[in-house]
TrEMBL record:
GO MF annotation list: oxidoreductase activity
Classification of source organism: unclassified sequences, metagenomes, ecological metagenomes
InterPro entries the UniProt entry points to: NAD(P)-bd_dom_sf (IPR036291), Peroxisomal_Beta-Oxidation (IPR051687), Sc_DH/Rdtase_CS (IPR020904), SDR_fam (IPR002347)
Database matches in PROSITE patterns: ADH_SHORT
Name of one Pfam family that matches: adh_short
Organism annotation: marine metagenome
Protein name, entry field: Short-chain dehydrogenase
Record family assignment: Belongs to the short-chain dehydrogenases/reductases (SDR) family.
Cleavable signal peptide: none
Record keywords: Oxidoreductase
Length: 314
């Protein structure tokens, strides 16, 4: 296969001052894209404070390698900040073809220990941030009839994770947002997909670092662990979803440590009773949960077809 290039394309990558976002931005730029590197520059995992230097540092890396990039330090968590970064991208590069919604914070607490003051910022950055940035970008993409949007979900949101009730809720919301926006955007040439990444970054060191479960399970540590689980093992999947040749829409790719798979939501065939009772559900729960012949709906209408298939047999 010939090299997949992004010449002439413009990308906005949020949270790109380090970790996953940095790798996304550098890869896209190395393949010819002009990249707006956005990062609030908070020195904490909770997203407090503001420092433009991380985004500026990544821009310097890209430019030193011969790429094209500019820096932005607006916050994704406000409508004003999101609109500002999209406007800055359009002004700087004259267009916007790709949005990588990567910005995020993490505040791990078990459910009974997290309070609303910790819960709300997580939703603000992940869910509102995704919405706020996508809205003006989507409007532009609609006018030109083309766009690629890649949102960042998580296995925590898809499958659950101890101590991450806020983070999981936010990432599950992004999955649903991705699915619906993909349906709506298809008629405008806008493809919307998601990535569920696993990588060793500042946010995940307690789980994927030298003292975490991954090190224990793999026997790797130090540079070996950083290489195997680094963000560079995720960025290619994100870049593919952002490429014009990618026909996927509404999909979520799980990427970690060099492995890429498809994550999806399905529904079992289930049971049908004309007069459903609590006892019937209890007695037939194994059939309800059986994964034989399960369906992966493209939209909610296809799930309803399961009921219609039962009714049409009557």
């Amino acid at each position: 296969m010939s090299e997949l290039r992004f010449d002439g394309r413009v990308a906005l990558v949020t949270g790109a001052g380090g970790g996953l976002g940095r790798e996304h931005a550098i890869l896209l730029a190395s393949r010819g894209a002009a990249v707006m590197v956005n990062d609030l520059g908070s020195p904490t995992m909770g997203g407090q404070d503001h420092d433009p230097s991380p985004a500026e540092g990544v821009v310097e890396e890209i430019q030193s390698a011969g790429g094209v990039a500019a820096a932005n330090s607006d916050s994704v968590a406000t409508r004003e900040g999101a609109e500002s970064m999209v406007a800055a991208t359009l002004e700087e590069f004259g267009g916007l073809d790709i949005v990588i919604n990567n910005a995020g914070i993490i505040r791990n607490r078990t459910f009974l220990n997290i309070n609303e003051y910790e819960f709300e910022p997580v939703m603000d950055v992940h869910v509102k941030g995704c919405f706020f940035v996508t809205r003006p970008a989507y409007e532009h993409m609609k006018t030109v009839g083309y766009g690629r949007i890649v949102n960042t979900s998580s296995g925590s949101g898809l499958f659950g994770s101890f101590g991450q009730s806020a983070y999981s809720a936010a990432k599950a919301a992004i999955y649903g947002f991705t699915r619906t926006l993909a349906i709506e955007g298809a008629r405008y040439g806008i493809h919307v997909n998601a990535i569920a990444p696993g990588a060793l970054t500042r946010m995940t060191g307690d789980v994927l670092g030298d003292d975490g479960a991954m090190a224990e399970m793999t026997g790797l540590s130090g540079e070996d662990l950083a290489y195997q689980m680094g963000p560079h093992q995720v960025a290619p999947a994100v870049a593919y979803l952002a490429h014009e040749s990618c026909s996927l829409n509404g999909e979520t790719l799980s990427a970690s440590g060099g492995r890429v798979g498809r994550a999806f939501m399905g529904v079992t065939k289930g049971i049908y009773e004309d007069d459903l009772t609590l006892e019937t559900v209890a007695e037939r729960i194994d059939e309800v949960c059986s994964e034989d012949d399960y369906l992966v709906p493209d939209n909610v209408d296809q799930e309803i077809e399961l009921l219609l298939s039962h009714l049409n047999q009557e």
